[in-house]
C-alpha cells in the first residue's frame, strides 16, 4: 500500500489489487519503527497518521522472568521526534493509507484475487489476470509488483524458488479484551514460561497474547490440551486468572507458522517482489512490516522517474527492480541469519 501511495504521489499511474474486500487483518505486523515514522514525517504524513489512527506506543522491548525484567531494546534514543514504536492495527492503517493513495489518483480494487501472470511475445511479464466475485478480469502493466505476503501466489506462479532457512518456532495468537484496571507494560513484552515464552502486545482495546511452540508441534500441543497453555499464561501473568476461560480448545487460537525464507532472486523481467513475498522474516520483534515499508520506499524512488515516461522503457524498469534487490538484500539476509540463530536458541528451551 505504501508503494501505491508513493508512486501515485509521484505522478505515476498505479493500480492496487487487494484480495480481500476489507483490510480487517488480525495478528499481522502492526508495529511501525522510529525510522519508518521519521520517513513518513519527511512526506508530511507522520503527525496526521498518529493523530488519525488509534494506536499505542512502546519505548522498549522487554523480557520478563519470575524474578527479573531485562530491557532487550530501548527505543528512546532511536529518534528525536519519534522515540517509540507505534502499534497501529493494519485494519486502521491500511484504509488510511489507501484513502491518501486514491487522493493522488491511484486505483484500488478491493476483493481482486490474483490468478495468473500475463506475458508478452518475448516472455516478459506484461500484466495480470484476476477475479472479483468470480468475474474474470485482466490488466496490462509496465511492471508487476508482487507484495502479497509470505504465502505469495505471485511468487509461486512466477516460478521463483523459495528456500526455508530453518525457523524453529510457531506462535499461537489470541486476542483478549483489555480492562481499565489491567497492569501497564511496555507494549512489546515477552514472559518466560516453563516451556517457552508468552508474548504480550498492547493493542489499545485488546491484549494480543502469543504462545511460542516448537515449529510443527501443533499436534502435540493439541494432545496436551488448551489447559496447559492457559496455565502457562496464568503462571507468567497471574492477573490473567479467569480471563482465558473462554478458550475451550487449542483450535480457538490462531496459528502463525514462523518462517524465515529466502528467494533465489526478487525479480524477473517485468516483475519484482517485495516484503514477505521476497523475504519472509520472523514476526518476533515486528520487523517484517518495517522491512516491507523500507522496500517500498526504496523501490518508489527508483520507479517514479521511469514510470512517468510515455511509454515507460521496460529496460529501465527492470534495472530499477534489480537495484532494489541489490540495495536491500544484504541487510535483509543479515536480519534473517540473526533471526535463525535466535529462534534456534529459543526452541532449545521449549
UniProtKB/TrEMBL annotation:
Pfam families documented for this protein: FAD_binding_3
Superkingdom:
Bacteria
According to the UniProt entry, its GO molecular function terms are: FAD binding; oxidoreductase activity
Q: Where is the composition biased (Basic and acidic residues)?
A: 326-350
Outline the segment boundaries, as ranges, of region: Disordered.
325-350
Q: List all membrane-crossing ranges.
A: none
Alphabetically ordered keywords of this record: Oxidoreductase
UniProt cross-references to PANTHER family, sorted A to Z: 3-(3-HYDROXY-PHENYL)PROPIONATE/3-HYDROXYCINNAMIC ACID HYDROXYLASE (PTHR43476), FAD-DEPENDENT MONOOXYGENASE (PTHR43476:SF5)
Q: Which protein, by its recorded name, is this?
A: FAD-binding domain-containing protein
* Protein's organism: uncultured Actinomycetospora sp
Amino acid at each position: 500500500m505504501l508503494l501505491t501511495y508513493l508512486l501515485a504521489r509521484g505522478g505515476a499511474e498505479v493500480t492496487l489489487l487487494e484480495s480481500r474486500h476489507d483490510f480487517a487483518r488480525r495478528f499481522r505486523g502492526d508495529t511501525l519503527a522510529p525510522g519508518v515514522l521519521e520517513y513518513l514525517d519527511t512526506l508530511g504524513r507522520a503527525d496526521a497518521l498518529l493523530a488519525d489512527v488509534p494506536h499505542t506506543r512502546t519505548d522498549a522491548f522487554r523480557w520478563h522472568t519470575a524474578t527479573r525484567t531485562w530491557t532487550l531494546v530501548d527505543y528512546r534514543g532511536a529518534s528525536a521526534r519519534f522515540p517509540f514504536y507505534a502499534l497501529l492495527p493494519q485494519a486502521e492503517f491500511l484504509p488510511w493509507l489507501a484513502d491518501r493513495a486514491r487522493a493522488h489518483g491511484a486505483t484500488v480494487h478491493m476483493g481482486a484475487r490474483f490468478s495468473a501472470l500475463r506475458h508478452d511475445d518475448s516472455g516478459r511479464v506484461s500484466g495480470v489476470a484476476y477475479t472479483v466475485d468470480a468475474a474474470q478480469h485482466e490488466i496490462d502493466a509496465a511492471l508487476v509488483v508482487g507484495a502479497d505476503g509470505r504465502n505469495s501466489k505471485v511468487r509461486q506462479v512466477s516460478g521463483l524458488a523459495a528456500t526455508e532457512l530453518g525457523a524453529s518456532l510457531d506462535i499461537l495468537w489470541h486476542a483478549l479484551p483489555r480492562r481499565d484496571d489491567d497492569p501497564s507494560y511496555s507494549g512489546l513484552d515477552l514472559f518466560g514460561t516453563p516451556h517457552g515464552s508468552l508474548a504480550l502486545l498492547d493493542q489499545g482495546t485488546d491484549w494480543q497474547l502469543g504462545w511460542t511452540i516448537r515449529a510443527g508441534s501443533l499436534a502435540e500441543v493439541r494432545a496436551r490440551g488448551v489447559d496447559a497453555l492457559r496455565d502457562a499464561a496464568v503462571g507468567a501473568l497471574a492477573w490473567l486468572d479467569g480471563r482465558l476461560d473462554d478458550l475451550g480448545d487449542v483450535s480457538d487460537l490462531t496459528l502463525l507458522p514462523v518462517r524465515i525464507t529466502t528467494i533465489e532472486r526478487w525479480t524477473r523481467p517485468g516483475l519484482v517482489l517485495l516484503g514477505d513475498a521476497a523475504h519472509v522474516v520472523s514476526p518476533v520483534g515486528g520487523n517484517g512490516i518495517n522491512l516491507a515499508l523500507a522496500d517500498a520506499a526504496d523501490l518508489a524512488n527508483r520507479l517514479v522517474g521511469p514510470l512517468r515516461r510515455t511509454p515507460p522503457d521496460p529496460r529501465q524498469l527492470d534495472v530499477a527492480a534489480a537495484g532494489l534487490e541489490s540495495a536491500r538484500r544484504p541487510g535483509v539476509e543479515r536480519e534473517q541469519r540473526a533471526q535463525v540463530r535466535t529462534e534456534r536458541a529459543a526452541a532449545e528451551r521449549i
